[in-house]
Amino acid sequence: MEVFFSTPELVGILMDHISISDESQMTLATCAQVNRLFSKEAIRALWREIRSMNHFLNLLPPDVTHSIMASNPKGDNVIHDPSKWEKALQYASFVRNVDLSSHYSSTWSDVGHLDKIIEAFYTTFGDQIFFRNLRRSEGLRLCASRHLTLLSPSLQHLEVSMAPDTSTNLDSIIQGMQRLTSLKSLQIYSSSILVLDDLSNLVPKAEGLTRLSLYLTTNATQLYSIQNFCNLRHLLLDVAQHGFKEEQFEGSRMTMPQLQELEIIGFSRVVVYLIRDVLPMPKESLRLQLIIDPYTERDQALSLLQP
Q1: Least confident residue range of 173-177, 214-218, 221-225, 286-290
Q2: Which of 201, 265, 301, 307 has the CA that lies 20 to 30 A from 95?
Q3: pLDDT tens, 157-185?
């Protein structure tokens, strides 16, 4: 027993086991008070998943926190002292999963805090990564390249809302997205025509990327630009009728030879267009799911799938 309590690897396994329980936060907090080794491993487990960037405000010196919350933190020299960020960056290295959706579903002040923290970090460290061991990120809203400083190249699962306001911001986002070469699953939400026009460049050329989900609310014809995703196994398209114009394209359909599961959600005209002109023809082994509005026109779309 004494060997167990003095072996970091074994204590770490114990904390991992505790972290998946329903009362993990309280239990881990209690474990952190047992001894120095338990404290170290319990803190790592506690910070493995976070749902708010506001936690990091408590890890910064009060003068830095005050400056970040000020109306114009860019020019404050207090923020730009890297030594003031050491503790926050140490704890950020423990984080594996981030869900920031609560920032956008709660108060506007939380949204402002998130953006101010990101801006302060970016103006201090440039392109340095904040969560350098991150594996999963959900709820991030990408408006400019500085938001990408949260994301590590080790990231495997990304759910992101893209809303660049200029083509310059989009170009920097594209450049940042291409470093995410470990991605296995990517979900993109966007209503921006800028994003649609450059969709094929936005999706990283990651060999392990097998699942792509696109929730788009603009012209579906731009989906034709997504070509040659040879390793893709699962593709989900949620496309609205807003701005839809049926157009014919010369050339081949999308090339996705490994596709196993295809799901399309949208209005009947959009779905019919995608099946007829853009997407790879279904194979016998392909799992296809159509969610069509209005449902009464489902037969029209299904008729296109007959051999």
Answers
A1: 221-225
A2: 201
A3: 999 888 887 788 888 888 888 889 999 99
Q: Shortest CA distance to 94 belongs to which of 173, 144, 145, 152?
A: 152
Put simply, whether the predicted model's pTM sits higher than 0.90 gets the answer: no
Count Cβ atoms within 10 A of the Cβ of residue 299 and give its class: 0-12 exposed, 13-18 middle, 19 or more buried.
exposed
Calculate helix-pair angle for 62-69, 108-125, nearest 10 degrees. Answer: 110
Q: Is 216 exposed, middle or buried (0-12, 13-18, 19+ CB in 10 A)?
A: buried
pLDDT in tens, 76-131: 677 888 999 999 999 899 898 888 876 555 444 455 677 888 888 988 898 899 99
Identify whether the C-beta of residue 230 lies closer than 8 Å to the C-beta of residue 204: no
